[in-house]
Amino acid sequence: LCPCLIYGAYVFLPFDAPLLPTISARLVYTLRCAAFATFPVVLGMIISGISRLCSSALEPFGELQREVEIHRTYVSQSIQLFILYFFNMAVLATYLPQELLKLIPLLTGLFAISRLIFWLSYAISRSFRAFGFSMTFLPLLAMLLWNLYGMFVLEPENLLS
């Protein structure tokens, strides 16, 4: 489903990436796009804090209720995945040709939507969370494989420069 979503958005959404000739400009562009991917994480932190405040637990440091644990787990997993996603997007931005830089905001949007879908499905039932997690993890895996391919096959002479 992820490749279909990315391809459909790439073809049908009417925007193009700005002209970014230098690597530093591409990294700044990626950093600005990644700021939007923090929205689901920050929202999860807010909801986690509110659920902890409204929890009916008598012991504040006692065992967490299911509602509090869901949000806490979502936030910690989202932060871990965001770090991996961001570093892979930053490396990806250095290897993509100019006409494919439109993928950076599309991948950012896919990450944010996928995390929200994961959160919703995890709150409904833990058995449904695989769909949202796979929509986050599989593009991350594809970016990692492309980055390794770019580093070791396309430009092995520039591996550390």
Characteristics:
161 residues, TMM79 protein, Four Helix Bundle (Hemerythrin (Met), subunit A), transmembrane, membrane, mainly alpha, transmembrane helix, elongated
What can you see in these coordinates?
This is TMM79 protein. The protein has 161 residues and is mostly helical. It has one domain (24-159): Four Helix Bundle (Hemerythrin (Met), subunit A), CATH 1.20.120. Helix content is 74%, strand content 0%. It has helices at residues 2-12, 23-37, 39-53, 66-95, 103-124, 129-154. It is elongated. It starts with a helix and ends in a 7-residue tail after the last helix.
What fraction strand?
A: under 5%
| Overall average residue pLDDT | 85
- Could you spell the SSE succession in H and E letters? HHHHHH
The CATH topology name reads Four Helix Bundle (Hemerythrin (Met), subunit A)
Protein name: TMM79 protein
Transmembrane segments: 29-53, 74-97, 103-124, 131-152
Organism: Oxyruncus cristatus
GO cellular component, one term: lysosomal membrane
Which secondary structure elements does this structure contain, and how are they paired or packed?
Layout: H1 2-12, H2 23-37, H3 39-53, H4 66-95, H5 103-124, H6 129-154
Quick structural summary:
With 161 residues, the chain is mainly alpha-helical. It has helices spanning 2-12, 23-37, 39-53, 66-95, 103-124, 129-154.
